[in-house]
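cron nightly-structures :: item 1 of 1
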Amino acid sequence: MLDTSHPRTDDGIERTDRQRVLSIVVPTFREAANIPVLAERIHEALSDSGIEWELILVDDDSNDGSEEIVADVSQRLPVRMVTRRQRHRDLSLSVIEGIRLCRFDTLVVMDADLSHQPEHIVDLLEALHDDCDMVLGSRYAPGGCVDRSWSLYRVMNSRLATWLARPLVDCADPMTGFFATRRSALPDLSTLRPVGYKIALELMVRGRLRVREVPIDFRDRNVGVSKMNWRQQINAVRHLFRLYASTLPRNRERP
């Protein structure tokens, strides 16, 4: 249950009023088998919290039956899908589109493949107080962990990416894709220049957000195929280059 003892904020709105409504943004591409399971687990995770929620699935034109599945699930749960019919598929751009469509200011972004456990959503919301702008679901904060089935190559690849990104932000897991934030705390979405998967890093760096972390148990997908490939790894490097360039003194005022 969410803590209901917080006082009123400077704007006269109780923090818990904002936490009782939630938009959940999930980018998808060929995740038809995971969508109904994800929606049901979110429903179960939030059923005792008193939170009014919506799930916005932003699909990169999967053409795998996802739209029909969402139409069925939406008969019993607050789920909707928007399809991006763009030439280039990009998870970060899908997340930005989902944020634009949110009904509520408080939002959570997570993956569709159930590597991010819906049961952690309330943990993220409980940590989203007025002294921070974003709460990260962290694999590398004390108490967090990754799937034990990870190969040595995957562990080293993740650690290297994390090491390369850490100078940009003060957190243990800057490459996470699971986070809670407030839309009102984010930078102007039109100024963002993400490439690939790491939208949280983009928001933290360009928005200069105050960040807190809560540990999560990261699981590998059971259904479907990972979208991480060499193209995405190249995009991650390109994205890091852009962000480092944006922190140079002559570029700090530029988007």
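cron nightly-structures :: done
Helices lie at 15-19, 35-46, 66-73, 91-101, 121-127, 152-165, 199-207, 230-246.
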